[in-house]
Every structure is written in structure tokens, then in C-alpha cells.
Here is the input.
Amino acid sequence: MDVYSDKVTGAENQQERLIEFRGWVIGFVDGEGCFSIGFVRQPSRAERGGYKTGYQVTHEFVVTQGERSLSCLHELREFFGVGQVIINHRYDNHREHLHRYVVRRRADLLETIIPFFTRHPLRSSKQDDFEKFARCVDIIAGGSHKTPDGLIEIAEIAQTMNRRKPRHELIRILRGHTPDIQDTG
Amino acid sequence: MDVYSDKVTGAENQQERLIEFRGWVIGFVDGEGCFSIGFVRQPSRAERGGYKTGYQVTHEFVVTQGERSLSCLHELREFFGVGQVIINHRYDNHREHLHRYVVRRRADLLETIIPFFTRHPLRSSKQDDFEKFARCVDIIAGGSHKTPDGLIEIAEIAQTMNRRKPRHELIRILRGHTPDIQDTG
Here is the structure.
């Protein structure tokens, strides 16, 4: 084998490693990832444009691991080039601290995380959660979460994600807000 | 682009998909897989060659998923070509039945599962559990689990796997067996 074909093989191996690693990321997120939409009551900040409904909507992509697999989270951080690895200290009877790779910034979700999992779909039922998550982030990016109708739409999608219990109570409260907002809007 | 290069591209894409899928398997097992060694008390079968110590040692590789991700388990079954997908019916308040891809047959572990994860290591701390599992199956394949010393060696390795609590009690009992077995052997 001459030098040239050695180089080709080297490049092919490198390419193969990258493709296999991309597959690993998809599989690991299928197992350990979570796409979630949250609602934070912000009653005292209703004057701010983003919180006219009294709620802040949060979005995050998270992968959690114990201390011994912390390196996997740093590998994800390096692979995606966005987000951060943070620690959840545990002082109870658990054996190790938990670490989380977290991407919360909307631009990082819209430009990096969502396009990646759109091009490379998950194989488990988590793909369904991802699609709902992407739909919610899309609504938020369009600004509709600042209106009661948009917020209710997000809450109705979010209640079907991650095997959550239905959020009838939240949606009831949000619906209750609608007349007020329309009156004052 | 001519027909030939189209075919090359097709073959490359096929190859790429296989490599990516292999990566997915590794990542999914990093997240959801479990390599475990169990001890089943078999006091009434001590006459059988395999249970002279009074214990049967079991080994299994398992990946568990809810009903909605059952297809992933069938994909694993197809990929490895060994093992089976079985259902754990749940009639409690859980939302879906659990399914398990299980490989228990020693030859399947020795010829398929262990060689695969030896060539393609896991990236999480589960790799450590896998190596201990492979060591235990190796001891069992050599027949040493039929002796008290071999069984204690396996129990000592197994107690450090899967964040289990130490199995002092089992090892104490096994050690207690040693003189009897030596006396009668």
C-alpha cells in the first residue's frame, strides 16, 4: 500500500469515526435526552412585554449523567458547539453528583439543536417529543407565546410531551386569562 | 453525474447509514442498556453439576423500552441477530407496557455481544460494567463458577457493577459454603 492510499484510508477512517460518533449522539439522546417546555409564573413582571400573560415559557434540551459519565456530556458540548455542562450537587444518599448538558438559548436551539435532529431523527418515541418541542420553539420564535392563544397552544402541545400528566389546571388558568387580556389589550 | 458514480454514491450512502446505525446502537446501549450478573439460590438442585455451590449464576444483556419505542428493540434484535424481544405486562398505574430486548444465551454473549462491545466500546461509565460483565462470563465459560472460589470471584466483581449495593451478605454466605464443598469435594 502506497503513501497515498494510506492517507485515503486515514481520511476514510476519520470520516467513519465522525459518522459513527454522530450515530452515537443520536442513540445517546434517544436514551438519555429530554426536550422540555416549561411554564414559570411571573405575576409581578406582567408589565414586561414578554410576560403579559403572567407566564414565562422556557425551553431546554437536556442530557443528564452521573459523575462517572461526565465525559460524555463534554463530548456532546463539543459536538454541538453550544450549551453548557452544569452540575447538580447531590448531598442526599445518592452515590454520585448529577451533571447536565443543557441548551436553553433560543438561538442555539433554532440554529443548532433543532436542525440537527431534523436532519438526523431519533429512532425512539422521543422523536415525537422532539417534534412537539420544535413546534413550540417555533411558536415562541414567532412571538405568539406572548398572547394567551399562543400560550394555550404551547401548553396544549407541552402537556402531551414526555409522558407528562395532562396540564388541565394550567390550561384552565390560561383560558381564564383570555378575557382579561383581551379587555386590556 | 453518470450511472456509475450514482451507484458509488448509493453504496457510500448505504455504508454511511450502516456506520451511523452502529454508532446509534452504541449510544443507545450507553443510555438504556444493562449488563448484569445474577445469583439464583438452587438448594434443591445441588446434585446437578452446575449447582454444586447451591447457586446458579445468570448473565444477561438487556435493553428496556416502553411500548412506544418497541421498534428500537426489534432494530437491536435485527442488528445483533441474537436474543429476543419480550414483554413485561404492566397492569399498575403506569402508562405503557415495558418491553425488553434480552440476550441470555451464553454462546450469543460470547460470540456476538461481547465481541461487538469489545471492538466498539461504550463511551459512558457503562463500559466499566461491560468489562466486568465480560470478565464474569469468561470465568463462567471456563467453568470456575461451579467452584466456591470462582463463584466468590464472580460475586465480588458483580457487587461493583451497575451501582449496586455491595453484596457482603451473599459473599459471606458463599464463603461459608467453602469448607463444606472442600470437605465433600
User: Anything to note?
Assistant: The beta strands of chain A are 33-41, 55-66, 84-88, 98-103. The interface with chain B takes residues 16, 19-32, 65-66, 68-69, 71-72, 75, 95, 120, 123-126, 128, 163 of chain A (CB under 8 Å). Residues 3-32 of chain A form the longest helix (30 residues).
